[in-house]
TrEMBL record:
<feature type="domain" description="NAD(P)-binding">
    <location>
        <begin position="10"/>
        <end position="176"/>
    </location>
</feature>
<dbReference type="InterPro" id="IPR051604">
    <property type="entry name" value="Ergot_Alk_Oxidoreductase"/>
</dbReference>
<protein>
    <submittedName>
        <fullName>Uncharacterized protein YbjT (DUF2867 family)</fullName>
    </submittedName>
</protein>
<dbReference type="InterPro" id="IPR016040">
    <property type="entry name" value="NAD(P)-bd_dom"/>
</dbReference>
<dbReference type="InterPro" id="IPR036291">
    <property type="entry name" value="NAD(P)-bd_dom_sf"/>
</dbReference>
<dbReference type="Pfam" id="PF13460">
    <property type="entry name" value="NAD_binding_10"/>
</dbReference>
Amino acid sequence: MTEQPILVTGATGKSGRRVVRQLRASGLPVRAAARNGEQVFDWTDSGTWDAALEGTQSVYIVQIDGTKLVRPFVERAIHHGVRRLVLASGRGIDNPDYVRDEDGVLEAIQDSEAAVRESGLKWTISRPGWFAQNFSEGFFVEAIASGQLRLPGGDGAASFIDAEDIAEVVVAALTDDRHAGAVYELSGPKAVSLDEAVATISAAAGRDIEYVPLTVDEYVAELVQQGVARAEAEVFADVLEPLRAGTDEYVSDGVWRALGRPPRSFAEFASATAAEGGWRLG
């Protein structure tokens, strides 16, 4: 009898593609779903949901920020006989002062968590903090490539989490009933300031890279000068507020609890990324 596949949504994203890779390395069948993925899946087109869910046993749910689509998706998963859900959530959702939430992002994530908990299925929730990979393939990558990370981050720090660790926790939750009902807040082993992070990347990459702290007004003005709409620039500045305020400096024990080992350090992430050709010019 053919083993039922595991559905991974967001399969081309930072955590999703690593989950796909790790599952396949273990010899498990995977349905890699994304808008342009092996399995076409679009959160905004519910007509793509059933084909993705059909015949699957477990699902990794990577939602779109600010939407309440997880609840109807979970209802379709139940209809298709899915037995286990793992939800990608985020640290800070229990803290109403974590970030200004004018777009309803936190409210939507809270609704997603509630939908998973109330599903009657086996569930696990992953709550990662700031991804270390924001420096190598996300929010900060272009600035790092330019040699200057110019942000309104002050001297704030965060306990950046390696997406490889996030994926390993998710894979464990997708394949082992011992993680049912668990909420794993995920972080690195210690807080790292932006200045420290950039210095670590600079050393690993063998390049001169610097962090330039800006005020919020300076940051917004620079983005507007680059052609970003002021409202959008202000949203970007708001996203950085927890980093600036040090709200994400605290260390979580989720990797330890899920995997029985410490999380990878930022230095380990930087060394591994540089060894794979990350931050190389030309």
